[in-house]
Amino acid sequence: xxxxxxxxxxxxxxxxxxxxxxxxxxxxxxxxxxxxxxxxxxxxxxxxxxxxxxxxxxxxxxxxxxxxxxxxxxxxxxxxxxxxxxxxxxxxxxxxxxxxxxxxxxxxxxxxxxxxxxxxxxxxxxxxxxxxxxxxxxxxxxxxxxxxxxxxxxxxxxxxxxxxxxxxxxxxxxxxxxxxxxxxxxxxxxxxxxxxxxxxxxxxxxxxxxxxxxxxxxxxxxxxxxxxxxxxxxxxxxxxxxxxxxxxxxxxxxxxxxxxxxxxxxxxxxxxxxxxxxxxxxxxxxxxxxxxxxxxxxxxxxxxxxxxxxxxxxxxxxxxxxxxxxxxxxxxxxxxxxxxxxxxxxxxxxxxxxxxxxxxxxxxxxxxxxxxxxxxxxxxxxxxxxxxxxxxxxxxxxxxxxxxxxxxxxxxxxxxxxxxxxxxxxxxxxxxxxxxxxxxxxxxxxxxxxxxxxxxxxxxxxxxxxxxxxxxxxxxxxxxxxxxxxxxxxxxxxxxxxxxxxxxxxxxxxxxxxxxxxxxxxxxxxxxxxxxxxxxxxxxxxxxxxxxxxxx
Amino acid sequence: xxxxxxxxxxxxxxxxxxxxxxxxxxxxxxxxxxxxxxxxxxxxxxxxxxxxxxxxxxxxxxxxxxxxxxxxxxxxxxxxxxxxxxxxxxxxxxxxxxxxxxxxxxxxxxxxxxxxxxxxxxxxxxxxxxxxxxxxxxxxxxxxxxxxxxxxxxxxxxxxxxxxxxxxxxxxxxxxxxxxxxxxxxxxxxxxxxxxxxxxxxxxxxxxxxxxxxxxxxxxxxxxxxxxxxxxxxxxxxxxxxxxxxxxxxxxxxxxxxxxxxxxxxxxxxxxxxxxxxxxxxxxxxxxxxxxxxxxxxxxxxxxxxxxxxxxxxxxxxxxxxxxxxxxxxxxxxxxxxxxxxxxxxxxxxxxxxxxxxxxxxxxxxxxxxxxxxxxxxxxxxxxxxxxxxxxxxxxxxxxxxxxxxxxxxxx
Lengths: 552, 412
What we know:
In chain A, about 35% of the residues lie in helices and about 20% in strands. By secondary structure, chain A is of the alpha/beta class. Chain A folds into 2 domains: about 5-55 and about 450-490, Urease, subunit C, domain 1; about 55-445, Alpha-Beta Barrel (TIM Barrel), CATH 3.20.20. In chain A, strands 6, 9, 10, 11, 12, 13, 16, 20, 25 and 26 form a 10-stranded parallel beta sheet that branches. The longest helix of chain A has 16 residues, at about 350-365. Chain A is globular, with a radius of gyration of 22 Å. Chain B folds into 2 domains: about 50-110 and about 280-410, Rossmann fold; about 115-275, 3-Layer(aba) Sandwich (Dimethylsulfoxide Reductase, domain 2). In chain B, a hairpin with a 6-residue loop joins strand 18 (about 375-380) and strand 19. The chains are: A alpha/beta, B alpha/beta.
């Protein structure tokens, strides 16, 4: 039945609508002209609410082998947070790194309707997609990992043309059913397999003979030239190392003006000032983002408490494992493609480093001028579980709340932070940009992230209240593809979601050299490596929705 | 019909380079593969003796009748166990849905041999590698137990001794360590076979771990071969330690895997050294992966309270059945006709290979299609990273295990 949401206060930045009162119509899966609906449609009075499109998390680790390793290692967390199923929902467990069904429910309860796994290994893509297929309620997609794989590094060493590299990148996107390309510590994960323990952006890896800058350069260009909407998604070198902000700025430069997305940039914004030789370089990073219009970033805010870090960056996970809590860690070299590292972490507000990390993330949010180019993430679960987003939104929207929290942190961290001097408070319109419109735009999801007629009816309705955190934690209504799935913060209907992909064109002759590579060195045949659309639907369990690529 | 790039799910390596021909219900492996692979395809041939129809207490019946009977058994059960799980991802997914609905305990046929590895991962984490990394990167591979080569027959040609590697260097030291003699390996020019005068492999690993520990002393009585192996590891750029937990005694396996983990992590401080545990010959990696992502817990999992619980002692399926703590067993086994239950309950449902000969205690038998022969499916490899497609290459009316489990679920 068609539905009319009456009297809504709308925040739709894609169409510059900032709090205007309007009605919204829903017909089947789409938003329709509310005035065209007949009087017998279901009418819901939401005059005490405001409305945004369904939220989109563009960086959340919700599927793949590393997530399952994290679940296994976080046994205490899962035992402490297990829940029953009911007639609608399956049971599950976990707070920091929840089981798949649980993750889907928790996202939907907060008004999210899509989440994107940012680290899909090509060889592990089937598992990542299976886990995401078993994550209900939201749409999914993945960024496939390149830049530490022997095939690309060999191409670069052999002087392959940009066009040949583009073909390979396009082939991997097609074969792995992903929507973007991610690079993690470019060349560093590969170098770690040869016992190299650090690799800076302009350092030639003794293992591959190329620099991280070169890798970021060819991959960012490939993504751009193939017409993939989402820019190269970059986890820069030297994560977590004091002084790494210079590496981060150099990495931005590696793109040479083509679009580039720096992910969990908080972890890459550290200076070496002060007695502890650890300081905030948020100002320098924000300035670089403000200046370079080709650059976007998500923050990777940390929150205090127990979580677990899961990353493809074996080099830096190994580097950081001694700071982990509880004391257990896993690193894994994977299939001449990549690696992964899993280290539990407890961020403490009385720790100088952790307190400053918290502050640095917020300083970046508040100093990047354009909310279309900075995204709200905690790098789930690395900085904190995604369920902390409502709290993070409150920190951004309420200066006194933010400063109250700051005043309870490690005193030296307070002294080293500029946060208390920052007056900015995010508006609802800006929150809508960074959690809806901008992610949809940067991912190329043309029919999501906005509320225009014809858009997919992914709609979140929040009941106005003074407590911003509570408001964003428990929407009054959430619609997914036109179906009411959440009412007053509770699941009322379960849906599956789809997988968003791109399939750029490429010269099929790349399969000749790939076939030889697979036959000689790999342990899976080329034919079995590729995932078809019908395998996605029939075996993996998720329907594929393809988005166009537009070459520049 | 001829098929190429067919996957064999009969061991954890999931070799997918097989040529298979199909003539009606006859399947023939054409590739020069291992006896383990051969057995899978020989076993898959359907003959007049194969069961193509469900049975209630040994008598043929319709699928609907069998489903209704199975549902009745579930409805009457006070505590059921779903086990076996020798199946593809889709069947495992459906088994978990049924387990949750029926408040069952769910475990794998190889559950007990998985426990040690899970416990070490939960307490310490691990340092691991995968098959292609070992194949291309290793310059020293140490196998703990000659039997690994029998359990994983193509490990040698596919991983240990590849014709080419990415570095171009195929020279590597391959060491097999064992406490029993093996004349074949002792005379093998490509392998350094270390026959250790020790009581067990576990002691050999314990001694190796001691050598890497910060308190190691040159005075301690360590077997000279172990010292030599340690020197080889330290002289290597990428050493791979390989084991399969089933070769270790059950009561000491956890300690042994812990020793291996400690050794590797200590060695990692200066060198690259990694583990390559091998398992998955009965689909346990697949079942455990599905369990972990769907419930948040590795196997075994109990849904007795409604919420998933993991307790490897209380919810060990084999022990529960032995102690009559469960009154209903649902056994799922689709790869091999030999994989029948070790322990039965009062009432038993078997969803099994069409050539399986069921015990008379089985109340309902559902012969189902074999994943990789009759049905498409997905299976997870020993390294828990690669998932391989299992192809449908034969046509018949056998339902999939997934379909049968769904029908029972819907009938409840």
